[in-house]
Amino acid sequence: MTTTHGLHDHLGYWLRRLSDEVHARFEAEIGRHGVTVSQWGVMASVFHGHTTTKAVARHMAIDPGAVSRLVDRLVAKDLIRREPDPGSRRTVLLVLTDEGRALVPVLAGLADQNDAYFFGSLEVPQRDQLESWIRRLIGEPHPAPPHDTAEESS
């Protein structure tokens, strides 16, 4: 006789539940600023130097077409603009507007608060281990950046 495990016996179920809850809480928080989690991802990517649709797509691990649609929405909200690349007539650069540049740190602070809400009960080595395991399971080749323990204790 074969054993059929129940829904709650599968790790994938718990990972999806956690992901859904982390995402939903963050979506509600940043929604007050008129952006979605995906739009924030684009803004944060541009803020950190990924200035083409292709570069943002690689950084976020999503389809360039999806990035283009997200950029369209951010352009409509006057948070990002597209500019021609002076070094290449075929390349369009993504540039945060002043409002967009000012909003990124606010949203990043909300992301930090959301992480603290869900993962704050873990000690830094536990968080680092969890992140390392997740990166390994999804095949992420880059190691996690080291945490600044001085920031974590404040």
Number of strands: 2
Distance between the termini: 55 Å
**Order of adjacent strands in the largest pleated sheet:** 1-2
pLDDT averaged residue by residue: 90
Biggest beta-sheet profile:
2 strands, antiparallel
What are the defining features of this structure?
single chain; 154 residues; mainly alpha; two-stranded antiparallel ribbon; 2 strands; disordered C terminus
Descriptive overview:
This protein has 154 residues and is mainly alpha-helical. It is built from seven helices and two strands; from the N terminus they run H-H-H-H-E-E-H-H-H. The chain has a two-stranded antiparallel ribbon with strand order 1-2. A hairpin with a 2-residue loop joins strand 1 and strand 2. Helix 3 (53-60) packs across helix 4 (64-76). The chain is elongated, with a radius of gyration of 18 Å. The chain starts with 10 loop residues before the first helix and ends with a helix. The model is unreliable at 148-154 (pLDDT under 50).
